[in-house]
């Protein structure tokens, strides 16, 4: 496939797979936007294979993390692949110096899902969030021009991904539970006297809301850390990151605000509200000069 064909396939993946990331990616310059799509295409494919889904929807046969690791290593080595996600990854790696450790870290999160893992502590949860989203934040930072040796900036990029994932976990508690997964730490459940299988029982509503509060309070902490690295990015990348931060943060805060009604339907942020987030993000990007 030509690069244009690969980019078209990656654009198709993000069109179907993520309204929020797609909206934020439009704010990048063309090259950064296309590279972000290629990274998303690989990440989306890995997620779908491990969940037995298509673009995050449905419930089918779950794939094998070992197969994904093998195909990913082939892409890293520049060996040809038939599937667009691995062609997209190979093309991206030919253009950007993304450290292989971030790819492996990302796959570690899926490996935990494959064995039905659940965090025991808040620290375990943070590490999982780093694997499945923080490592992606690091790769996105490199795509946006951050050098792989700029560890401090990459740490803030990881915190941005962790913030996004915590909001996703809050939104998807019921959906995850129905799929046999739970990302609420077992020590929280024990402390509040809740059995995992009875999480949504009426008598546990207050306890569940307390755990959601803890998740969203953590989102704010990681968001604050992420902002400290924004000034290392070009203007359009600052704008995109700040817009994404507001969009994903709004999802988590809406879940908290809705209480038990949050899981009656999938919480999202409407198109007009997403556009509205661009205005304060533009202002913040302007007053945050690049260093």
TrEMBL record:
Pfam families, alphabetized: SQS_PSY (PF00494)
Keyword Transferase applies: yes
Source domain of life: Bacteria
Keyword hit for Transferase: yes
Record key words, sorted: Transferase
Protein's UniProt name: Phytoene/squalene synthase family protein
Annotated organism of origin: Sphingomonas limnosediminicola
Source species taxonomy: Bacteria, Pseudomonadati, Pseudomonadota, Alphaproteobacteria, Sphingomonadales
């Amino acid at each position: 496939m030509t690069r244009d064909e690969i980019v078209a396939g990656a654009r198709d993946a993000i069109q179907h797979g993520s309204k929020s990331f797609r909206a934020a990616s439009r704010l990048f310059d063309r090259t950064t936007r296309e590279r972000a799509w290629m990274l998303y295409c690989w990440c989306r494919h890995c997620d779908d294979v491990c969940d037995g889904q298509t673009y995050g929807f449905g419930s089918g046969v779950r794939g094998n993390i070992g197969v994904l690791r093998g195909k990913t290593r082939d892409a890293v080595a520049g060996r040809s692949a038939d599937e667009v996600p691995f062609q997209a990854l190979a093309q991206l790696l030919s253009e950007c110096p993304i450290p292989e450790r971030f790819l492996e870290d990302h796959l570690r999160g899926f490996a935990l899902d494959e064995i039905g893992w659940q965090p025991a502590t808040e620290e375990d949860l943070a590490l999982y969030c780093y694997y499945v989203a923080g490592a992606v934040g690091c790769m996105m930072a490199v795509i946006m021009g951050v050098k792989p040796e700029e560890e401090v900036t990459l740490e803030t990029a990881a915190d941005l991904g962790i913030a996004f994932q915590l909001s996703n976990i809050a939104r998807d508690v019921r959906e995850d539970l129905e799929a046999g997964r739970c990302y609420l730490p077992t020590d929280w459940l024990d402390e509040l006297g809740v059995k995992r299988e009875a999480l949504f029982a009426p008598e546990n509503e207050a306890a569940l809301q307390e755990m959601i509060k803890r998740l969203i309070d953590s989102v704010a902490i990681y968001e604050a850390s992420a902002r400290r690295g924004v000034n290392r990015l070009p203007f359009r990348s600052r704008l995109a990151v700040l817009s994404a931060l507001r969009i994903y943060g709004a999802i988590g805060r809406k879940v908290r605000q809705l209480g038990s009604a949050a899981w009656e339907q999938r919480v999202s942020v409407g198109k007009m509200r997403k556009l509205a987030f661009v205005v304060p993000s533009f202002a913040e990007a302007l007053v945050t000069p690049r260093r």
